[in-house]
Amino acid sequence: MEIIIDTSQHCIKTGSKKEYERLIRQYFKAGLCEKEKSIMEQQIEALIYFLENVDFSDLRNQYHKIGPSGKSSVLVFPQTLKEMYIRFDQRILSPIWKKR
Fold this sequence. Notes:
alpha+beta
């Protein structure tokens, strides 16, 4: 699963929050089939996990060191949420998870 995050005018955290809010609004619009709802539910769940568990201080530091030039980043979720990574251009960032 992939989720495109607009980072042209926002940091990755704010862009993720905005995408989460957009998905929530879209989810409650009438006329979605069950398959579309299921996909959105997975995306919403992934964004919640990302927003609650990523060390954004570290992520911002990594992000600025390599200087992304794209207007969007892509959150990629291979098999499990903990294997998530962020892709932009040809670069990959692996988020550091908060310790609980």
